[in-house]
Amino acid sequence: MGEAYFYHLTHTPLEVTLPMLLGKARGAGWAIAVRGTSPDRMDWLDQKLWLGPEDAFLPHGLAGGDHDALQPVLLTTGAAANDPACLMTVDGAEVTAEEVKALQRTCILFDGTDPQAVQHARGQWKSLTDAGCGAKYWSEETGSWQMKAEKAAV
């Protein structure tokens, strides 16, 4: 049974935090789906990932291609065709308790400077933990990532 990790972005932008987390998940040998809410935003993230340092390149693709099932990292706005072990959501994309329980890890990244995003993440925390999912809340308010809250799976 997996857990949901909530990442409250306050100092480091999504385009910096996401590649770091993707690298860690790839290091664990996981296929990853990155779920967003807008195709344009997924295209923007795709461009940012291509511009990363050559020695830290993350092989990835946008959903809708011929090889979606083979992508180690698939950027999508819906279900993932690459059989991910890890799901990372951005921009308030939805995730269900069933998905959290079925995956190794679910990461929910949200913009801490946007009050609506913070409120949405709080709602997701409550919904997922009320459904029995384990969850951890990570904050970078001190300048480095620290776990600030944890709720065990039931």
Keywords:
globular, 154 residues, 4 helices, alpha/beta, Rossmann fold, single chain
**For the largest beta sheet, what order do the strands appear in spatially?**
3-4-2-5-6-1-7-8
Question: What is the CATH third-level topology name?
Answer: Rossmann fold
Q: Structural class, from helix and strand content?
A: alpha/beta
**Helix fraction bin:** 25-40%
CATH superfamily: DNA polymerase III subunit chi
Main β-sheet description: 8 strands, mixed
Rounded to an integer in angstroms, the radius of gyration calculated over CA atoms is 15 Å
Shape: globular
The CATH architecture designation is 3-Layer(aba) Sandwich
- CATH first level: which class? Alpha Beta
The topology string of helices and strands comes to: EHEHEEEHEHEE
Q: N-to-C terminal Cα separation, in Å?
A: 10 Å
Spans of 5+ residues with little confidence (pLDDT < 50)? none
- Beta content: 25-35%
**Strand element count:** 8
Number of helices: 4
User: Mean of the pLDDT scores?
Assistant: 95
Description of the molecule:
The chain is an alpha/beta fold and 154 residues long. The chain has a single domain, classed as DNA polymerase III subunit chi (Rossmann fold, 3-Layer(aba) Sandwich). It contains four helices and eight strands. The protein has helices spanning 14-27, 39-50, 97-102, 115-130; strands at residues 3-9, 32-35, 61-62, 73-76, 86-89, 105-111, 134-139, 146-151. It has an eight-stranded mixed β-sheet, sandwiched between helices.
